[in-house]
């Protein structure tokens, strides 16, 4: 704690030691040693890297190496993981998958941005476009040519009765848009090499097409 005075170091340790702050606010990893001085959350090193990508929302500092002044320590004391969670995670849809520390960076970044940057869960109904029987999530899809798995946004719409997926995170038009009633999905852990592997088969132009996907959690 270079340069810090003893009183603020002591106060910082007291806040840090609270049970609510002993797990990363974003992925649940034990013993976080970073914190956001603007959001007031205690986070792990890995999630602090994601926070650093959204500097307009979050300023991260090491709890061990950086100096925290009295006002910043007071801010952490007034916020902390429990209070901040009550605000930013107030209304998470039941189908929303909350990543943990074993999940990949892509999933965690999506979660962190949804939570703090887009504030999707602060108010009831903010997720309205998705509420209408629509499930959205990231699945790892095998590329047709090189066989490599890449994360892709998938959308399942009950109202429209179709499954769509997008090659780009912010794409407006889906790469495919298939009617659910022509889809056949089977679990194929061996074929795909993942316990949560799924083969989606559908008909297009009278030809059978296959998509191979998996999700890390199996949800
Ligand atoms: Zn974390």
TrEMBL record:
Where does the Arf-GAP domain start and stop, copy by copy? 6-129
Q: Which CDD domains match?
A: ArfGap_ADAP (cd08832), PH1_ADAP (cd13252)
Which keywords does this Swiss-Prot/TrEMBL entry list?
A: GTPase activation, Metal-binding, Zinc, Zinc-finger
Q: Which domain of life is it from?
A: Eukaryota
Q: Which SUPFAM superfamilies match?
A: ArfGap/RecO-like zinc finger, PH domain-like
Which GO MF terms are attached to this record? GTPase activator activity; phosphatidylinositol bisphosphate binding; phosphatidylinositol-3,4,5-trisphosphate binding; zinc ion binding
Q: Which GO terms describe its cellular component?
A: cytoplasm; plasma membrane
**Pfam families, from UniProt?**
ArfGap
Listed name of the protein: ADAP1 protein
């Amino acid at each position: 704690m270079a340069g810090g005075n003893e009183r603020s170091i002591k106060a910082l340790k007291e806040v840090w030691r609270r049970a609510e702050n002993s797990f990363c606010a974003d992925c649940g990893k034990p013993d976080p040693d970073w914190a956001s001085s603007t959001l007031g959350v205690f986070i792990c090193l890995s999630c602090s890297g994601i926070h650093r990508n959204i500097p307009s929302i979050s300023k991260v500092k090491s709890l061990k190496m950086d100096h925290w002044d009295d006002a910043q320590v007071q801010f952490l004391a007034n916020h902390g993981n429990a209070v901040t969670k009550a605000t930013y995670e107030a209304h998470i849809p039941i189908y929303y998958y909350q990543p943990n520390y074993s999940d990949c960076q892509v999933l965690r970044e999506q979660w962190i941005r949804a939570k703090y940057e887009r504030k999707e869960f602060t108010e009831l109904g903010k997720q309205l476009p998705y509420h209408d029987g629509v499930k959205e999530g990231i699945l790892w899809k095998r590329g047709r040519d090189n066989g490599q798995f890449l994360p892709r946004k998938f959308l399942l719409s009950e109202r429209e009765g179709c499954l769509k997926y997008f090659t780009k995170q912010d794409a407006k038009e889906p790469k495919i848009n298939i009617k659910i009633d022509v889809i056949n999905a089977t679990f194929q852990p061996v074929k795909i090499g993942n316990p949560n592997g799924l083969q989606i088969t559908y008909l297009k132009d009278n030809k059978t097409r296959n998509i191979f996907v998996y999700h890390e959690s199996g949800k």
